[in-house]
Write a structure and sequence with these properties.
single chain, alpha+beta, six-stranded antiparallel sheet, 8 strands
Length: 343
């Protein structure tokens, strides 16, 4: 029976200790305490919900200041240092709140600028107390000792370098969103960029251009009189160029890289009296190879003579009733190097 009572008292003791710790955290020992600022920030947020216009902005602004001040106070009372540095973990928390407050917005609380400047702001928050001596209201400015100044410079410089690397990541991410064809390039010789995903062997936008261009070219040639087909092929550079520009504007309108793609044709004769039309989508943007690359889709164009409802292959391209027949490759070919010269 005594053991049972001891166990019960032990359980009550645990709850009492928990209650004492929670009370110590939530109930300030005096009015001028970090809990007061936290409660003021919560109260300001509650009031701003019911306010409108600039009054709401002012109350929200004060709430952020109270939150930052309370968090900074609490996390610096008994600071835990980041391993290998003299930066308190609380400075990271406070720096994040300051960065969100200064560079966030209502649509996106956390923006790329918030993340980029977070390390630098945290290092400055860590360095500020070193320029003051004393506590609370009894403090005065001072110049840190030489060894402390050295530590501050190393910390701030290291955090600024880290911010630069984070900014570099966001710049690369933006480039790859606006110029997705760069993903098909080779980054093995790059000192700064390493692939973490499966590389694309063929740029998708180059394939899209040729896939959308092919049916437009087929409409211009298929079942047209052979004389018109040959006339069209003589002016193929202009004809294919105009069709290609329409495709690029329509399919790549949301990408900045649309200005870096160019469409050109290459026409060659065949022994059977027909032609081979190569449709090229040429990448004019940056590339790991000096010669660049392009994609090719070949189309075979032959004259076909019609006799009533039956089509018979003609051996005479000048036949008055001959019409054009075109057949294109289903898959585009990726070619590393400069496109062949126009004949």
């Amino acid at each position: 029976m005594n053991v049972l009572f001891k166990d019960l008292f032990g359980i009550f003791k645990i709850f009492e200790d928990v209650y004492t710790r929670v009370k110590k955290i939530l109930v300030p020992t005096q009015a001028y305490a970090w809990q007061t600022f936290i409660y003021l920030s919560v109260f300001s947020g509650f009031l701003s919900y019911f306010a409108n216009g600039y009054i709401r902005d002012i109350i929200a602004f004060c709430g952020w200041l109270f939150l930052i001040a309370g968090t900074a106070w609490y996390t610096t009372d008994d600071p835990i240092r980041v391993p290998g540095t003299f930066m308190p973990v609380g400075a990271l928390i406070t720096g994040f709140l300051v960065s969100v407050f200064a560079f966030g917005n209502q649509q996106d609380v956390i923006t790329p600028r918030t993340i980029v400047l977070w390390p630098t702001i945290s290092s400055l928050i860590t360095a500020i107390p070193e320029f003051f001596e004393g506590t609370d209201t009894d403090s005065k400015a001072q110049i840190p000792k030489p060894e402390v100044r050295q530590k501050i410079l190393i910390l701030v410089a290291s955090c600024m370098i880290l911010s630069c690397w984070i900014q570099f990541y966001f710049v690369m991410d933006k480039w790859l969103q606006e110029y997705p064809s760069l993903l098909a390039d080779n980054f093995q010789r790059s000192t700064f960029v390493r692939r973490t995903d499966i590389s694309e062997k063929v740029p998708k936008n180059g394939v899209i251009i040729l896939d959308k261009l092919q049916p437009l070219v087929e409409q211009q040639i298929d079942e047209r009189p052979w004389s018109q087909v040959e006339k069209w092929l003589l002016d193929a550079k202009l004809q294919v160029g105009n069709l290609g520009n329409r495709v690029i504007d329509k399919q790549l309108g949301k990408y900045e890289e649309k200005a870096l793609w160019r469409v050109e044709p290459r026409v060659t004769n065949t022994k059977s009296g027909g032609y081979v039309l190569d449709l090229l989508s040429i990448w004019r943007g940056p590339s790991s190879s000096q010669k660049g690359y392009y994609l090719k889709k070949s189309c075979r164009i032959d004259p076909v003579a019609t006799s009533g409802k039956k089509a018979i292959t003609s051996t005479n391209p000048e036949d008055k009733i001959a019409v054009g027949e075109i057949e294109c490759d289903r898959v585009s070919k990726f070619v590393a190097g400069s496109p062949p010269p126009q004949q």
